[in-house]
Amino acid sequence: MPVRKNRDSLVCTCAILIVIVAEILLFSASDARAGGGQDSAGAKATFQTKCAMCHGPDGTGSEVGKSLNIPDLRSEAVRKVPDAELVKIVSDGKGGMPPFKGSLTEAQIHALVRYVRSLRQHKK
Ligand code: HEC
After folding, report:
1. Which domains are assigned to the chain?
2. Ligand 1: does its nearest atom lie under 6 Å from the Cβ of 37?
3. Average pLDDT in the 64-70 region?
4. Which of 54, 63, 100 has most ligand 1 atoms within 8 Å of CB, for mutation?
5. Residue among 57, 53, 43, 38 nearest 86 (CA)
6. CA-CA distance, 54 to 70, in Å (whole number)?
7. pTM of structure
8. What pLDDT does residue 33 have?
9. For a tag on the chain, would you pick the N or C end, based on fewer CB atoms within 10 A?
């Protein structure tokens, strides 16, 4: 049934477009916040270089991360973890997660935790 098929692929195209638009909004929103200071822009860059290889650029987890059973940083489960605990996990490591207190300053780790929280705000 050609008509039906066309509609299905239209739905599919729409879904892809929505994802792309959401992505653009997400990035422009975090750039807007970064306007307040270098802080979150710096954290974003640090996240991309130090964390994205496991956590993925958006915190959902890369292929490597998934093989380590990584939690989605935007998930409800991580949302419930207090900031202080996340700071501690990033500093000291946990399970497959390496400690970063040797390579990042405390301020950088705090900024990263704020960055992780900002990823989450865009999850529907
Ligand atoms: C080598 C892969 C790897 C890298 C690099 C990495 N992580 Fe992780 N991360 C993990 C794994 C695996 C876990 C899950 C640990 C567990 O619960 O056993 C985790 C857990 C976390 C958690 C805790 C989530 C929760 O509530 O359990 C946070 C926050 C986090 N990572 C942030 C970061 C940040 C920020 C960076 C960059 C500075 C980073 N990670 C770099 C692998 C990684």
Report:
1. 36-122 (1.10.760.10)
2. no
3. 95
4. 54
5. 43
6. 8
7. 0.74
8. 45
9. C
